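=== Structure Prediction Worksheet ===
Name of assembly: unnamed complex
Input type: mixed (protein and possibly other molecules)
Chain count: two
Listed entries:
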Amino acid sequence: MLAIIDYDTGNVRNVQKALNYLDIENCLTADPAVIARADGLILPGVGAFTKAMQALAERNLVQVLQKQAQIGQPMLGICLGMQLLFDRSQEFGDSKGLGLLPGAVVAIPAKPGLKVPHMGWDQNCGRPSNRFGRVFDGEATYFVHSYYVQTAAKNIVATCDYGVSIPSIVQQSNVVGMQFHPEKSGAVGLAGLTAFKEMVNDVAFSRN
Amino acid sequence: MITKRIIPCLDVDDGRVKKGVNFVNLTDVGDPTAIAAAYEQQGADELVLLDITATVNHRHAMVSTIESVASQVFMPLTVGGGIHTVADMQELLKAGADKVSLNSAAVRQPELITAGAEKFGRQCMVVAIDVRMNPATQRPEVVIDGGRTAVGLDAVEWAQQAVALGAGELLVTSMDKDGTKSGFDLALYQELTAAVNVPIIASGGAGSIEDFTTLFTQTTVDAGLAASVFHFGELTIPEVKAQLKESGVLVR
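=== Predicted Assembly ===
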């Protein structure tokens, strides 16, 4: 069972629709007990960083997610959900994130001819040694974002080039992030969600 | 780099696709979900679904249509027609739409663009603009109510205003070109792309593969939209994309 974290952000249902389509057992929840029992977590997200962190805090989910990540529960952050995994964001000043991955979220620099938000189908360049890197290498996926993460190269699994190199997939052991929307990226996006389910199966996370 | 998008548009009336669709290998040619899935197979980058007779009853039909499409088709969905309140937007987004499109309602209640952008983000807010050349002034003018009411607004000025109010994308249809299959209105899109810095979807006039090539090589629009040429299989998305690739246009 995968738990999709429900914290009043847009489009959580689209992640659920994709999992249902793939016959991956899932539930939409903000209940810490359900989250702790799940085999893996998905943290979706659309909107603004600070508001999303507030929404997680209001549901007492910040420490829950930190603890679950620490004890090895597989976790996938999508779009803003990926950005929330990091230490902090510059969106609206300086906000603290979940701190599960080292790095910061900064604005995509405005350059001539490059519109912000970075919106549309963009090509990924993935690291073939990584299961997600393999799935998405050379494939275009659907992005909608104005901020991007800066993190050490060893955490970056795939990138896309938009004037700056934007990490499109990040991973550090059990914590994975996708900057694009796999649930809106057609067949390859669904393959990415399947790869996460496979990782969940492989990890055999022990819940005590 | 971001790829250029090819977007089929479905006119939906009470839960069925209208204007006729004549796909090969589709048994139910009016079912939006079957048609959307066929377009996904073909490699469409996004779908626009327009509720063409948006009354209260139709809106409920549209919500269940979006629910159904979004559970089978995994690409961005833009939904327009009959959206008058933030609650209407929320209902459609919750059903699975990724963006909502405002047309006449944006002109009548410009504050609706801002309210939607504040609640859902600019990336959710598409403003659709139907444009007709005014022969007297030789300027492109905004027309609302499905082409019935000229409101005396300059299309480029309205585009700039809509973006300032919170539009994250513009879907601009040239009524002079619509249905003519004589190519997109290049001059209009050249002027618009110079005037605003949000993605622009060009619509109206697509008749041949070359029309798409010309659109993307001579303007900097982000997407080309068409309906009947795709619905009747006169053009297929794979052949349009193959030709674009050959011309050096980046597509998925």
